Every structure is written in structure tokens, then in C-alpha cells.
Amino acid sequence: MKKLSIFALGLVFACNSSQKVVSEPAQVTKVTDPVPYAESITQDDLKEHLFTYASDEFEGRETGQPGQKKAVEYLKSHYESLGIPAAKADGDYFQEVPLEVSNVPEGSISINDTVFELGENVVSFSSAEGNYDSVIYAGYGIEEGDYSDYKDLDVTGKLVLIKAGEPIGSDGNYIISGSAEKSVWSNMSEGMGKKGELAQSKGAKGILYYDSQNYPRYKGYFGFMKTNNSGRMQLAEDKSETVLIILDENSAKAIYSDIVSEDVPKTIATDLMLNVTSTNDKISSENVVAILKGTEKPEEYVIISSHLDHIGVTADGQINNGADDDGSGSVALLEIAQAFKKAADAGHGPKRSIVFLHVTGEEKGLLGSRYYTDVEPIFPLDQTVVDLNIDMIGRIDPNYKGARNYLYLIGSDKLSTELHNLSEEVNKKYTNIEFDYTYNDENDPNRFYYRSDHYNFAKNNIPIIFYFNGTHADYHRPSDTPDKINYDLLENRTRLVFYTAWEIANKDQRLVVDKAPSATEE
């Protein structure tokens, strides 16, 4: 089931992950020596690409803007020059991604004659209008197994008031999990989406969502949009008539004073007036997708991805070149494609097909990758073996001032023990990079697992690895320029991804998916 973006706002602010301990060695398939082809990935070539791709000419590659159009033409030209065909059957390298921008809403809501201005005690990212004399309080808004907050409730055409979190039993354990561990319903990145979709499936007109802990994040994002006059971008198909209002404690208690302490669902009489208006502008953007067909298993697909966009130009005219984010991943993907093509031209093509996927709209909420997975997958997801996602691999973060040869890996163990083991063995055999799993930890506050394009594959039970060098002082700033890239590290990290893809593509059997973490629950 697709997640409507109106209910997926948590992805803008959060991510989550868990680290598994594995010990069994991977079985790395013995195939043609890939080293000569990996050695075609060079610092000089990466640098040449990046000084063009992250130049001022590309104007920060903002989604749907002229600079992004120049970027996709650059990528397309490279695949054409290599002789790697487009992934689409019609020969078009561009997968159109229809987008809309909801301009920053204006207005207020009135609760029992108290007016709450938008952006203060209430936040909405789309229009919400109408008068209501009651709302349905559905507690935590959860339904799973024998537990349901919607028992005996008819919410058809109503506004539903729900709160973040999940119920705790008299034994102190969480009712849904039956243990001291929280379930996915408490996960910021997915909880609101699951609760919103459930309410919508039951016919609710809209959702009033109370989340005191994370409200400052939503409020801050709204304030940023308003200050920069930038609306929220979404897939065109996500446009929904469903109302979503996020409440802080003051506005939530104005509707139901006992909302913090009481979980029992009920109908609440109230005088509620929604007066929030917004308009939508259509935006056109593109993913760039090429494919090298497999020699033995062409209907199984290894996807290597990076995002082609960045954040454009600042209000005062400075260009955010995005050399690391994600110029580094974009040019790495071009070099990996070249290496695979050299192997294929020498008669050593991969057994499985390799899909080179450059996605748009990552900076706007993983939109291009979600369009590919949820709306128009060019190749069947059930035949997609893995997604190796590259997002920022050209720099050194402040934690590694002395030790340079490192890389953060995220998600390798989430769905496939075999993938994690293979990744470790490939690295030991070829590149000897120090893998850091800090951001793979369940409790890491950065929650990066949900913050790049691999997530849209992972939620569809496709094993992933996210390659990442961490953030730095130039992250999302005009100072993220190609002269600051560590090209020796970029070369070795790019080769790592090539070697990993090579082994996966040439295995006799596809990767085994032996885990089902909460990140993939629907």
C-alpha cells in the first residue's frame, strides 16, 4: 500500500534503524577477476565529472528547475556515450515524475472560540477548511491483531483526533508488542503515516494529530518554508482531500483537555472551524534510468542508485553546488556504469541486469525513488534483488579527522544476513575500508535509515545498503564545492560499491531475504 505523502511527513525529519550482529562468513562467488574493471574507476575521471556536475552552470540542481534539467541531460549523454541503453522500453532515459508544490498555507483554526494561528500551536501543509461540531477521539489510532482503537467507532466523514505513541498494559509492557519494546506505531517516521492511512481507510474526513514531542520539528519545518517562501513538494498523485492538522499540547487540550491521560475513544462535542488555504503548482521532473542487461538472469535486477538533485540557489543568490550531496554519488554511479560496460564489452557481462538509477526529488522527500517503487516501477520489484544507494561519499565528517579510510554503512543487515556478510567479505578482499555502523543503530537520533532513497526499496522488502560519509560543516551550504572532495577516498569507495554489485550480480542464487523488520511493515 502506497503511503500518501500527507501522512509521511515524518520522513522529512527522522529515520530509524537497527544493528544486527552476524558472524557467519559470506560465500563470495568466484567469477572473472573484476579488478581490471574496477581500476577504470579513477580519481581523475571522478574529478572531471564532478567539476562539471557540481559547477555553477548547474545552478544547484534544484528539483524541476533549469539546473536540474541540465543535470539530467549530462547523465543521459554519458550513458549514450557508453552505449548503455535506456531502461524504458521506448528508449527514453527519462522517467517523468509528475510533481506538485503545495504553497505555504495561510490561515488559522478556531477551537471553541479560541483562535490558533497556523505555524504557532497548529501546523498544516495543505488546505483544510470547514466547520465541525464534533470530532471522534480514537486514542492512539491503532488497529492491530486483537487490539483496536476503532472498535464501535464510526468515523465516516468525521475528523479523527489521535495522538502519537501506543498503549501500555497494566504489566508495564507495550500492548502491541507484548514486551518492553515499542512497535512501529511509535516510530515517528512511520507511526503518523500508518495511523493516517488507517483513519482514511475507515472513511475519516481528516486527522487531527497530537505529537508534543515532535511538534517543534513540524513547526520548525513550517517556519523554514514560510521564511523561504518554499512550498512542500509532493508527487502529483498524492494530492488528497484528506485534512491533516498537527497539534501541540495547547491546541490538543483545547479540543480534549484529558488527551494526555485518557486513551479511551469517544465522541467529543466541539466548535471547530478550519480556515487554512493553499494552492498547488505543477512541476515536471525526471529520474534518469539506464540498464545493462544480464547474460544469464536478465529478469533479475541489481539497482545502484543516487539522487541527482540538490537544493538550488539561496535567497541571496548563492549557488548550493552539492558536490558531496549528492554529486559524489551521481558521478560514482557514472563511473560504476563505465566499469560494468568495459567488462561486458570484454565478454564478462554480469549474470543479472544492472540498473543505474538516478532519482530526482530526494531533497524534497525521496519523491523520485518513491515514484519508481510505488507508482511506476520500470522493472518488477519482486525481481529486484538489491538496491545499493550512494548518497554523500566524497568527504570526511568531523568524527574522522585523523582516520580517513572509513565509510558509514546503513541497512545492510536489515533484510538479508547474506547481504551483510557479502558486503563485509567483499570489502576485506578488495578495498579494506573501515565500516562504521554507528548510524545503523536502532537508537541513533539522526535516523538516517529513512532519509535517503534506499528506504523506498527497503519498505518493499528489497535488501539495501546505504553508503554514506556522514555530514560536515558544508552540508546543504554553498560551500559544498568540488574542490573539497577527497578524490582518493571517492575512488576507493566507488570501487567498493562496484565490487559489491559485481558479486551480487554474479551469484548463482539471488540474495536470501531472511528478516522482516518494522521498516517493512504495512
Automatic annotation (TrEMBL):
InterPro entries: EF_Hand_1_Ca_BS (IPR018247), M28_fam (IPR045175), PA_dom_sf (IPR046450), Peptidase_M28 (IPR007484). One of its GO terms (biological process) is proteolysis. Residues 287-499 form the Peptidase M28 domain. GO terms for molecular function: metalloexopeptidase activity. This is PA domain-containing protein. It comes from Flagellimonas taeanensis.
